[in-house]
């Protein structure tokens, strides 16, 4: 049978909907629902099978996954209509749509309460805040989790106190959603609540807090995240690094400049290998341009002597990144690290016959900042031997900084 990974890559809707309806494996059905929420397909191919799964599947987890998949496709109102037998408005004033859904938040069927919570979060109107906060006490943890998530989407500060109370919920999913929503809403009370989790005995709770602190658009959580780099648990340390990257992305204007300076100062003083390893992972596996750009920028400034070579290898590997800003930050970071290891890596890229023009051109240009006599000789040879005009132009530029062609 074709793997779910392959079905996700190919977007085979027929196979995915068949697995959702007929597979005997609960994890397979749940994963099929997850994929159907994101697959590129016409709604008429996907929505009815998901609605059917919510109505008929024996597994609570599968039903929950199908509800979230409908939410992903902005079609959860269709499910509410199917469960209630009444049409739910999808157009018109947000407050009116929210008020219509509030009524179903107290329905007997938990799936309907979950769907309504998701829909209210998607609408994002504060008219739903009070009812959603009440549902944080719902007997079904799936409902509590989605109510917490919806409140984070709405970003109403009035929900902070109620969300704070759920940080001790028996359900990990509820705790995670409450913490994430507090990070989204922000403010001193939300920050105080999350900081209170950093000494929790549970590594899961500490990791949830670390992830949520990255949502703040200011430097306030910086010291807390740096402290987590000494956590005994690797997953917590890595979550802290990812959140530091998110802080860089979220901080506005002048705050971003100040935050970068403070972050570099603090991380340079720690010399934690987990920082470099996590930044390398973001460059290697990350899919979000803002994360990869900031990882490339930060890596060159916090690598330290012990991690220099690992950082340079990772940066050199993205000199031809399809995102031009990531590639440019990688080049400037290699120059920032400098030294013989940087020169070696750049010469390897320059001499790699499979490297792209962009990568070789950036390597040639950066050699002008970090290269020595060996680089000067090789750049001279490149100018005479290469047919690539862009590489030749960059080599000329680099040579001018290394004393010319003499």
UniProtKB/TrEMBL annotation:
The keyword Repeat applies. It holds the Pfam family HEAT_2. SMART domains: EZ_HEAT. GO terms for molecular function: oxidoreductase activity. Transmembrane segments: none annotated. Keywords: Repeat. This is HEAT repeat domain-containing protein. It comes from Halorussus limi.
């Amino acid at each position: 049978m074709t793997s779910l990974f392959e079905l996700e890559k190919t977007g085979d809707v027929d196979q995915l909907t068949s697995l959702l309806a007929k597979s005997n494996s609960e994890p397979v059905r749940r994963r099929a629902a997850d994929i159907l929420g994101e697959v590129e397909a016409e709604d008429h191919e996907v929505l009815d099978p998901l609605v059917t799964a919510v109505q008929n599947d024996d597994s609570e987890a599968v039903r929950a996954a199908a509800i979230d998949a409908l939410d992903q496709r902005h079609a959860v109102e269709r499910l509410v209509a199917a469960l209630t037998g009444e049409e739910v408005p999808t157009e018109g004033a947000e407050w009116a749509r929210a008020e219509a859904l509030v009524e179903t938040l107290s329905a007997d069927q938990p799936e309907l309460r979950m769907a309504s919570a998701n829909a209210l979060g998607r609408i994002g109107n504060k008219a739903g805040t009070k009812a959603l906060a009440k549902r944080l006490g719902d007997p079904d943890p799936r409902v509590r989790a989605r109510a917490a998530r919806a409140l984070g989407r709405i970003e109403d500060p009035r929900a902070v106190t109620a969300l704070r109370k759920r940080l001790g919920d028996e359900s990990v999913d509820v705790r995670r959603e409450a913490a994430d929503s507090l990070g989204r809403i922000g403010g001193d009370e939300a920050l105080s609540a999350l900081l209170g989790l950093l000494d929790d005995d549970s590594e899961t709770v500490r990791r949830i807090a670390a992830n949520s602190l990255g949502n703040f658009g200011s430097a306030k959580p910086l010291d807390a995240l740096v402290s987590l780099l000494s956590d005994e648990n690797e997953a917590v340390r890595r979550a802290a690094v990812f959140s530091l990257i998110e802080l860089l992305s979220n901080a506005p204007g002048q705050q971003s400049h100040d935050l970068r300076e403070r972050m570099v100062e603090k991380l340079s003083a720690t010399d934690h290998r987990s920082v470099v390893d996590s930044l390398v992972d973001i460059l290697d596996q990350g899919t979000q341009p803002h994360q990869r750009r900031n990882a490339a920028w930060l890596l060159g400034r916090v690598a330290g002597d012990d991690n220099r070579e690992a950082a340079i290898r990772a940066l050199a590997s993205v000199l031809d990144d399809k995102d031009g800003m990531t590639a440019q930050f990688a080049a400037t970071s290699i120059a920032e690290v400098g030294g013989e290891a940087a020169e070696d890596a750049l010469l390897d890229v320059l001499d790699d016959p499979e490297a792209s023009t962009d990568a070789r051109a950036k390597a040639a240009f950066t050699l002008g900042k970090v290269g020595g006599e060996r680089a000067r000789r090789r750049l001279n040879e490149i100018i005479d031997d290469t047919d690539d005009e862009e590489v030749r132009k960059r080599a000329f530029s680099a040579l001018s900084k290394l004393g010319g062609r003499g």
